[in-house]
Amino acid sequence: MNRSKYFDYVEEKLTTLAVRIDRKGKLNILDLHLHSENFYMHFFNKLFNWNLSNLNDKLQNVEAIDLIDYTNKLLIQVSATATKQKIESALKKDIIKNYTGYTFLFISISKNANDLRTKIYKNPNNITFNPKTDIYDTDFVLNKILLLENPKEIYRFIKKELGNEVDAVKLDSNLASVINVLAKEDFTSDVILNKKVSFEIDRKISHNNLDTARYIIEDYKIYHNKVDKQYSEFDKFGSNKSKSVLDNIRKEYFKLIKITSDDELFFKVVENVTAKIIESVNFIQIPIDELELCVNILVVDAFIRCKIFINPEDYNYATT
Fold it and tell me: Which whole number is the average pLDDT over 287-292?
């Protein structure tokens, strides 16, 4: 396994790890029998050469501080709640007064912290804390891993702690969110597709020798504009929502690309995307035939949008 594959594996696991948060807002390590603080304690010790210990092992239910490094004089809060209020709440706790000369670090494991680094914080106990340098997030951690000469040790640690068990646990997915919306869409009404777009799609079908899949694409290509409308609504909840769905379908395509038959490749993409949606914790169960209808529409849309299969020369699906 080369360096990029080590990194890709670690990135996938750390990103997955940040997804699940229980109803109380407390981090849930994917239902594994592993306490989150202890996982990150060992992980950060390996990555940053720190000497962290879990403060809760000595003092029960410590507020504001999860991990402490007596050697490097670090106080660390690891949180899935990345807000200014969360950080200020930690900074004002009385326990901070006991650690004169220490630096407070806040590590967000649920989302990008760029915005948090730009804010000014109330720091009544005057502990050393610089938002620009003392707030970490998953992107920061991944960049640190990317710069390692040999990420193999980190890879081995992640694999040992999380391994393949993580893959079996149901997680939220944007794919499932889109399907939940599409399942409510009326696909019985007549839809007319732009003739130019229809011609371009037919060219791509022929270019990729899709004989059997042709019928599925022709049946569902007319819903391309409806999907486009849903993606536009979906993106109001996050700038990368629709992109993540399309990239997910594209990823399944590349994983299966060595299959020789183009038709088989198309149907395997549909099959894998369906399985991924069923395994998503946020999937609202619907009859399997309705699910297959929605997945077919999504995959055909991805086909039209140049996300899967090879485009013929000067291929242009644009409707405007």
Answer: 90
